[in-house]
């Protein structure tokens, strides 16, 4: 990527091998997964140095030991588990990322490839997996028997959150933009859902909750807090991790505090969260990430066009 802009700015090219650094490891990549974050990097949101190699997610083989690994894209988290350090960044922001044949990352950002996962599924796991795990487990404390509403079925975060909720023993519901996505979500374990194209979708969703008075937890990756909170039960928790649809919310403050609600902000997780995620995956109860499409690395531009076109259920993966 030599300039910021549209998908056409992603073109194949030759770059130098990653330079050796103490405490860092080079990985021969077998697959790399797309995230909406990559689109923002391409557009210049994070002012990445140019020319630049984007990409946060990947899986491959350590060049020093030959071990099959997945890459945690959460860099320089720091010692405090409650929030990242000022040095925190995402792989592919300023450090060359995974749209490549090789990537070099701190050793703490590597973990064994999950047993039974393909290369594509392994590459698609880290960013959405650790982000969903931190949101649902570390921040919201979702427990077996509780109810969860996921806003926006189909994207990588939503499909991963559905898999984690199912593994945790929670009952998950979704909102979606089409009947087809609702059907896919049900096939993947959702107990039900509503179309968020309907004006009264929060009330429709609330009525679906097991007790009919709203959900214990709502996962909000799009920025519609003022609508989503209407589907919470009294004392419920809403965990916010994105702003793809809206970057500002106009909240009913009085209704919020009388409802005894908790509003929890979250981001990508830490190495500790990643270990928790992989421990849960190792139990065999977490379905692998859904793969919507696979492209050769040389077709990264076309893969971005597909991502931006919407309508996906699952992740897009690049194969070097």
Instruction: Predict the CATH topology of the largest domain.
Output: Quinone Oxidoreductase, Chain A, domain 1
**SSE order, one letter for each helix or strand:** EHEEEEEEHHEHEHEHEHEHEHEHE
Provide the gyration radius in Å: 19 Å
Number of helices: 10
User: Structurally, how many domains make up the residues?
Assistant: 2
Q: Can you count the beta strands?
A: 15
Q: What's the CATH C level of the largest domain?
A: Alpha Beta
Strand content: 15-25%
Unreliable stretches (pLDDT < 50, length at least 5) are none
* Shape annotation: globular
Q: Compute the average pLDDT.
A: 92
Question: How helical, in percent, are the residues?
Answer: 25-40%
- The CATH homologous superfamily of the largest domain corresponds to Medium-chain alcohol dehydrogenases, catalytic domain
Model description:
With 320 residues, the protein is an alpha/beta fold. It folds into 2 domains: 7-125 and 289-319, Quinone Oxidoreductase, Chain A, domain 1 (Alpha-Beta Complex), CATH 3.90.180.10; 130-265, Medium-chain alcohol dehydrogenases, catalytic domain (Quinone Oxidoreductase, Chain A, domain 1). The chain has 10 helices and 15 strands. The chain has helices at 36-43, 119-124, 126-139, 156-168, 179-187, 201-208, 225-228, 253-258, 271-282, 300-309; strands at 24-33, 57-62, 68-71, 74-75, 89-90, 102-106, 110-112, 147-150, 171-176, 192-195, 215-220, 232-240, 262-265, 291-296, 315-319. Strands 1, 2, 3, 6, 7, 14 and 15 form a 7-stranded mixed β-sheet that branches. It has a 6-stranded parallel β-sheet with strand order 10-9-8-11-12-13, with helices on both faces. Strands 4-5 form a two-stranded antiparallel ribbon. Helix 5 links the parallel strand 9 and strand 10. Helix 3 (126-139) packs across helix 4 (156-168) and helix 3 crosses helix 9. Residues 1-21 are annotated as: Disordered. Keywords: NADP.
């Amino acid at each position: 990527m030599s300039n910021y802009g549209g998908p056409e700015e992603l073109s194949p090219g030759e770059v130098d091998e990653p330079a050796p650094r103490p405490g860092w490891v080079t990985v021969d990549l077998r697959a790399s997964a797309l995230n909406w974050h990559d689109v923002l990097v391409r557009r210049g949101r994070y002012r990445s140095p140019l020319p630049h190699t984007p990409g946060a997610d990947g899986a491959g083989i350590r060049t020093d030991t030959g071990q099959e690994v997945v890459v945690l894209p959460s860099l320089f988290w720091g010692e405090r588990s409650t929030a990242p350090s000022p040095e925190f960044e995402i792989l592919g922001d300023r450090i060359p990322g995974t749209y490549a044949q090789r990537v070099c990352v701190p050793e703490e950002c590597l973990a064994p490839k999950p047993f039974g996962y393909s290369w594509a599924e392994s590459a698609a796991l880290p960013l959405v997996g650790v982000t969903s795990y931190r949101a649902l487990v570390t921040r919201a404390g979702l427990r077996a028997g509780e109810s969860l509403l996921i806003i926006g079925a189909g994207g990588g975060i939503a499909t991963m959150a559905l898999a984690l909720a199912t593994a945790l023993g929670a009952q998950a519901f979704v909102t979606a933009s089409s009947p087809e996505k609702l059907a896919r979500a049900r096939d993947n374990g959702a107990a039900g859902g509503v179309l968020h194209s309907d004006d009264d979708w929060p009330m429709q969703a609330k009525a679906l909750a097991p007790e009919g008075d709203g959900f214990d937890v709502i996962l909000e990756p799009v920025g519609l807090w003022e609508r989503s909170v209407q589907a919470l039960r009294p004392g419920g928790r809403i965990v916010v991790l994105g702003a793809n649809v809206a970057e500002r919310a106009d909240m009913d403050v009085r209704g919020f505090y009388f409802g005894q609600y908790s509003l929890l902000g979250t981001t990508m997780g830490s190495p500790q969260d990643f270990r928790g995620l992989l421990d849960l995956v190792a139990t065999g109860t977490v379905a692998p990430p859904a793969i919507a499409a696979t492209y050769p690395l040389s077709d990264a531009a076309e893969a971005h066009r597909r991502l931006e076109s919407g309508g996906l259920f699952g992740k897009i993966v690049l194969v070097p």
